[in-house]
């Protein structure tokens, strides 16, 4: 990727700060809206296997919300690195606080690490793809 993509094409420093804080806040809001209210595990009556606390539709909706948030921030010319970091760290932090408060096995740390690596990887891939597509569109 050329350095021209990362040059002066981003907004001012104050815009970046406000934008990154907004991304972090909206990441927290996405967690609360989709996942924060559901604390109940579900037990399959035929097998007795517990699952949860989240349903597939909740996780899918949350992931889609975070994707829209990231793409919106990139379209507003926020820095992809700081935007990805803000989204990843804020969402992982709120998930970790919730998981730690109700966890008895101590495995929430593994979940935190998996979430951190997964979100960081996903936001990096989406950011790079977005930047390439934007650069390709400009070169036409």
Structural description of this entry:
The chain starts with 12 loop residues before the first helix and ends with a helix. A two-stranded antiparallel ribbon has the order 1-2. It is elongated, with a radius of gyration of 18 Å. The protein is mostly helical and 140 residues long. It is built from four helices and two strands, in the order αββααα. The chain has one domain (3-138). Helices cover 70% and strands 3% of the residues. Helix 1 runs parallel beside helix 3 and helix 3 packs antiparallel against helix 4.
Topology:
Elements: H1 13-36, E1 42-43, E2 50-51, H2 56-75, H3 80-102, H4 108-138
Antiparallel strand pairs: 1-2
Helix pairs in contact: 1-2, 1-3, 2-3, 2-4, 3-4
Count of β-strands:
2
Average pLDDT, rounded to a whole number, is: 89
Oligomer: single chain
> What separation lies between the terminal Cα atoms?
17 Å
Q: Whole-number radius of gyration?
A: 18 Å
Taking the sheet with the most strands, its summary is: 2 strands, antiparallel
Q: DSSP strand (E) fraction?
A: under 5%
- Structure class: mainly alpha
> What is the percent of helical residues?
over 70%
Unreliable sequence segments: 1-7
Give the topology string: H per helix, E per strand.
Answer: HEEHHH
Enumerate how many helices there are, as a single number.
4
Identify the overall geometry: elongated
Strand order of the largest sheet: 1-2
Work out the count of structural domains. Answer: 1
Keywords: Membrane, Transmembrane, Transmembrane helix
Transmembrane segments: 12-37, 57-76, 83-101, 107-131
